[in-house]
Amino acid sequence: MKNQVINVLLSGVGGQGTILASDILCSVFQEVGYDVKKAEVHGMAQRGGDVTTHFRFGKKVYSPLIKYGDVDFLIALELLEGLRNINWLRKDAKVLLNEQVTFPPAVTRGTMKYPVDVVKTFKKFFNGNTYSIKGLDIAIRCGDSRAVNIVTLGAFSNFFEIEEEIWERNLLEHLPKKVHDLNIQAFREGRKVLSLS
After folding, report:
1. Phi, psi of 98 (to 5 degrees)
2. What is the rounded distance in angstroms from the CA atom of residue 59 to the CA atom of residue 4?
3. Distance between CA 85 and CA 175 in Å, rounded?
4. Whose CA is closest to 193, among 140, 150, 138, 142?
5. Is the pLDDT of residue 50 over 90?
6. pTM for this model (two decimals)
7. Measured between alpha carbons, how far is residue 119 from residues 22, 31, 82, 95, 123 in Å?
8. Which residues contact 151 (CB under 8 A, 6 or more apart)?
9. CATH numbers and ranges of domains, the chain
10. Bridge-partner residues for 89, per DSSP?
């Protein structure tokens, strides 16, 4: 994997910590020897707006932007936001979906319907490579719904042979000390909930 560039697309809504998650990814993969690039491609400042970031790592990465149709991993912190980006994925992409629903304004106004069976749609096109977790439920059990991004990172960490200690050290560097214990628990619960076997 060190000789190729791996493309990770993160999508979610404002308030879910999508950008923080990509910052942690940068730190982790940089520590283990990769060149990394990241770009916040589209984002809304208000809570609930869509946020997308591109994260790329490899021996040498020249651009932070992923080419359309070239995503190797999709991390979707919200189902509709994952679905919005389905066409960015390669045919053999791996998909990690947090089964969380946040209605956009058009749905709350009644001008559109929230899509049904989003996980099923991904499984239809990425059979065997679609993984889903109930990250919000886990984050709430850990003590804070805002830890959903850390739960999801914990699940995502299973795709790579990087020591858990490295993940945890880097995520703590991005978080205030008062929430360290909660987020370590959230990360570990996320690691436990996803089985790749």
Report:
1. -90, 120
2. 7
3. 28
4. 138
5. no
6. 0.92
7. 23, 33, 10, 10, 6
8. 98, 133, 135, 138, 139, 142, 186, 187, 189, 190, 193
9. 6-193 (3.40.920.10)
10. 71
